[in-house]
Structures are given as structure tokens and as C-alpha cells.
Specification:
The protein is an alpha+beta fold. The protein contains twelve helices and eleven strands.
Length: about 550
């Protein structure tokens, strides 16, 4: 008797693409009944082995009991399994290329009947390039005159100052090393060793110490004002016992040949020449960076386009992480920050950063700007020479590649080339600014960017990501080809022009007040560029 043949199960998915906006899309996928039932069976079997129910041996609880007790968990896992199984192929079939992992919006799944799910995701924006060639732009540059050179030389003198011992009595401005015993009225005494203070006789404590000599011990009482912020000692008398252990004064060297030789220069004339050249180079770098920002601002104004919400959210993650690290170093607990409010204040910055990356990417693609392996190697060798790296070139480069830094180098070099290409065709008017005018310009820029953390802009790429998994590492602009590591491998990734950096991101819970769902992680496309900010000039 011939064996019974199992009917062929065709996975005939029905896919509908839904356009929510220029960068936000949805996919509605209908799944055949047999596959829905199959996945339900797999999930229920797995859960049966994991749970213990009274009256049943492990793995022997009936399906009806499991569904009754764990229906929500089972349906959720079935939905997630079907999304993981079909989303990327469904997106390809619909002719769209997601740059983020799907966020499940809804699912209609029951055993024995056809099911469906709807997932939201982001796509890269289409950038209509404005006229970026022949831009009229001002190049504002600090004039390096004798005053600027003199100021910088004074700064060199100040930084070369040394603390030298003194045998005289302590005086205002001296640095005193003290052992201090403190006994507030009605409290236990406390002792502090080797406390270093710069004496200022305007302060009551310092006024008592002024005039002391080495190894001298002095006792005195001070009355603490009633309004003192330290409530424990406010309005009380405090008894002090102080011993002067060391006394020094700050000695600034003369501006002469001896100082020049200490700085590896032949004489004062060579030092002054070197300072002027260094300031000229710094002024040129500052002017170029400022001009690049001006060009980018003009292009952004001329090319409005929507950016993916997931990219903006990830940029905000980086800003938040950077700010948290900053305040932690200052001794402030990051948990005291209203992060929702902080993210809202930085949203404009984040949107601009992401738009900048996509705009520069589009220009680089239009100009077919590439970076060769030889150029990357040359940049690495320059870094090694400047920083006196002792490793071999091969070992050092391998370490950079392991950490993904070569992708960042490539992106930065490409960004430089893009700006160089635009500057070459621009109509540049150079403005030399004296000290006052330059300081006014710098102050205006400071006010505009008050509170803004420095973003790294390079062509390492923009990429979205799973918001619960995509925080960590150095700040960067996010988009379709950045340095995050992701769980999925999409077919389009193999066609990416720039490899993704293999960096593992730390997990983070998504903010509920953000505009996008909590599951966003990108496929890989061309790497959007990142603009530079005007840097501070040396000596300013």
C-alpha cells in the first residue's frame, strides 16, 4: 500500500506596505493558519518544560491549562517569533529597505486560523540636494598680531611656573600645607592631614594662618555665621589647632633663552617664531572649521527633509550618556537629572546632527568621494608618530580594526574630502578679526550652543537601533551605517559601502515619552557624513 503523502505547505505570505511618513513605514503581514498553529505548538511546548504547575509533572500540563494561565505570554512570543521569521523577507518583497528593527504594533494570532501582524520601522530619507557648489561664504579668522603672540608667550610662562619652598613667614598667595584639628562647639573633634590651601587673608581661617612659620603650631577660635549653609555648625564657635608643615610660593620664569631651551627651542627668537606659526596654523584650522559649519548651516536651511525618529532618539541617547559622564566626574549623581526634560532640550540638536549626516552622505555620494586603504594607513602612521606609539604598525592597525576605529578614520577622512570639495568651488571672502571682534564672535557662538555636548561628526555612518540595546560607547550621529552591532543580518548589509564597526552596545530601557517604539535597529546603507564644529584656537 502506498504511503500517504503530506500536503505541501506553501508559505504564501500577503504583505502590505503602509506609508506613515517619509521615513516611518509599516508592514502588515498575513500568515497562513498552518504556520500560526505550528509556532503556537513550538512556543507552548517550550513553556511547558519551563513551568511547574500543581498536579502535573514537568512538561505534561495540557495545552488548555497552559493557554489559560499563560495566554498573554504565549501570544506575545508567537508574535515575536513570526516577526523575526518573516519581517526582513516581507520588507524586501514590498520593495523597502528598513534601517531599524521592527516594532510590533499589533498582532491577530489564534490557533487554527490565518493570522496577521503589523510592524513599524524607519527608512532612510530621500535627500534632494540643494546647490552645494559655488556657495558664497565668509571665512572669519583671528588676526595673529604681536599682541596675540605676547599673550600666548605669557601663557607659556604661567604654565612653566613652579612652586618653590620659602623660609619666610606665610603670606597672601603662598601655598601652605597644614595639619588641621577642628572642634565645633558641642561636637567631637576631627583631624585633617596635609591640607593644601592658597592663602587669602580675606578669608577668616586664612587670616589666622598668615604669618605662621614652618613647623609652627597655632590655635584659634572662629565664630561661624548663623546663616552658614552647614546647619551643623551654623552660629557656633569652632576651635582650630593648625600646624604649618610646608610653605611654597609660585615662581614664574622670565621670558628668555633659558625658558626657550626648557621647551626644546634654541633661543627666545626661535620660540617666538614657533609660537607665531603655531597660532597661525590654529587660526586657519579654526577659520576652516567655522566656515564648514557656515556652509553646512546654509545647506540644511536649503534642504528640509524628515529624519528617522529612531536615529534622533539614539542621538539623544548619546547626548544623555555624555552628559551623565560629565556630571559624574563633577561629583553629581546622574539620577538627580530630569532626563525627559534634558532630552527635550537637546532634541533640536539631535535632529540637526542626524540631518547633517544624511546631507553630507548625499553630497559625498553625488561627488563619488572615496577613501583608499592607503590614505587610512597614512593617517594611522601619522597618529603613531605624533603619539610615539611603540607597537608595530601591523599590530596597532589590527587593534584599531578590532575596535572599529578604522571605520571612524575612514569616515572622518571622507568628511574632510567632502568639505574640501565644497570649499574649492565656494566663493570665499576672508575676514581678519582683531582680538575684540574675535572674542565677540566666540561669545555669540557660545551663547547659541550653550549646554551643547560636542558631537563627533564623521562618515562612520548613521544607524538606528533597538532602543533597549543601543546605548553605550562614544557619542556619534546615528543613521543607516554606524558602529553599532546588531542581532540581525539583512541582505542589503552585504552591499554596504562602509563596514559597520563591531561595537557592543550597552542595554538601556527605552524612554516611553519618545516618539518612536522601543525596537529600532538599522540595516546598513551608505555612511552619512558628520560635520565638524569650529574648534577653539590655541591661546584663546
Amino acid at each position: 500500500m502506498a504511503a500517504t503523502q503530506t500536503p505541501e505547505r506553501k508559505n504564501e505570505l500577503k504583505v502590505q506596505l503602509i506609508n506613515h511618513s517619509a521615513t516611518r513605514k509599516g508592514l502588515e503581514v498575513k500568515v497562513p493558519a498552518w504556520e500560526v498553529s505550528e509556532v503556537f505548538g513550538q512556543v507552548i511546548a517550550k513553556i511547558a518544560k519551563q513551568v511547574k504547575l500543581p498536579g502535573f509533572r514537568p512538561g505534561k500540563a495540557p495545552r488548555s491549562v497552559l493557554m489559560s494561565k499563560f495566554q498573554r505570554e504565549i501570544v506575545s512570543e508567537v508574535a515575536q517569533s513570526l516577526v523575526e521569521r518573516h519581517f526582513w523577507s516581507a520588507a524586501a518583497a514590498a520593495g523597502t529597505q528598513p534601517i531599524s528593527n521592527p516594532a510590533l504594533e499589533k498582532a491577530d494570532l489564534r490557533e487554527g486560523v490565518d493570522g496577521s501582524f503589523k510592524a513599524l520601522f524607519d527608512v532612510a530619507p530621500e535627500v534632494d540636494l540643494p546647490a552645494y557648489q559655488g556657495l558664497a561664504v565668509a571665512k572669519k579668522k583671528r588676526r595673529i598680531d604681536d599682541e596675540a603672540v605676547t599673550e600666548h608667550l605669557e601663557g607659556i610662562r604661567e604654565r612653566a611656573a613652579k612652586l618653590v619652598p620659602v623660609d619666610e613667614a606665610s603670606a597672601k598667595g603662598h601655598y601652605a600645607t597644614l595639619d588641621i584639628k577642628v572642634k565645633p562647639q558641642g561636637m567631637k573633634p576631627q583631624s585633617y592631614q596635609d591640607q593644601v590651601i592658597q592663602l587669602d587673608d580675606a578669608r577668616p581661617f586664612d587670616k589666622e594662618v598668615v604669618g605662621m612659620k614652618l613647623d609652627e603650631r597655632r590655635t584659634f577660635d572662629l565664630d561661624v555665621p548663623a546663616e552658614d549653609p552647614n546647619k551643623n555648625i551654623a552660629g557656633k564657635k569652632v576651635h582650630y589647632e593648625v600646624t604649618l608643615k610646608d610653605l611654597r610660593k609660585r615662581e614664574v620664569p622670565e621670558l628668555n633663552d633659558e625658558l626657550a631651551k626648557d621647551l626644546d627651542k634654541a633661543d627666545l627668537k626661535e620660540l617666538m617664531t614657533w609660537v607665531r606659526e603655531d597660532l597661525e596654523q590654529a587660526a586657519e584650522r579654526d577659520a576652516m572649521a567655522r566656515m564648514q559649519t557656515t556652509m553646512l548651516d546654509a545647506l540644511l536651511d536649503a534642504a528640509p527633509f524628515e529624519v528617522p525618529a529612531s536615529m534622533v532618539s539614539l542621538q539623544l541617547d548619546d547626548y544623555s550618556q555624555e552628559f551623565a559622564q560629565l556630571i559624574s566626574r563633577q561629583g553629581i549623581n546622574p539620577n538627580r537629572v530630569n532626563w525627559n526634560a534634558y532630552r527635550q532640550t537637546r532634541r533640536y540638536d539631535a535632529e540637526r546632527a542626524v540631518r547633517s549626516g544624511y546631507l553630507l552622505q548625499a553630497i559625498g555620494n553625488a561627488e563619488d568621494i572615496q577613501v583608499s586603504d592607503e590614505e587610512i594607513d597614512a593617517e594611522i602612521r601619522t597618529f603613531m608618530d605624533e603619539n610615539k606609539v611603540q607597537q608595530t604598525f601591523e599590530a596597532f592597525k589590527a587593534e584599531l580594526e578590532r575596535r572599529g576605529n578604522t571605520t571612524e578614520i575612514k569616515g572622518r577622512l571622507r568628511t574632510d574630502k567632502i568639505f574640501e570639495r565644497m570649499a574649492a568651488s565656494a566663493k570665499v571672502t576672508e575676514e581678519l578679526l582683531d582680538k575684540k571682534a574675535f572674542e565677540e564672535l566666540a561669545e555669540l557662538e557660545r551663547k547659541r550652543e550653550a549646554g551643547e555636548a560636542v558631537s563627533r561628526f564623521d562618515a562612520g555612518g548613521l544607524e538606528g537601533g533597538e532602543l533597549s540595546e543601543q546605548e553605550g560607547g562614544e557619542p556619534h550621529v546615528h543613521g543607516p551605517d554606524c558602529d553599532h552591532d546588531h542581532d540581525h543580518e539583512h541582505a542589503h548589509a552585504e552591499a554596504a559601502e562602509t563596514e559597520a564597526k563591531p561595537k557592543k552596545a550597552a542595554k538601556k530601557t527605552a524612554k516611553k515619552d519618545e516618539d518612536e517604539p522601543k525596537t529600532e535597529a538599522p540595516a546598513k546603507e551608505d555612511a552619512p557624513e558628520k560635520p565638524k564644529k569650529a574648534s577653539k584656537k590655541k591661546g584663546e
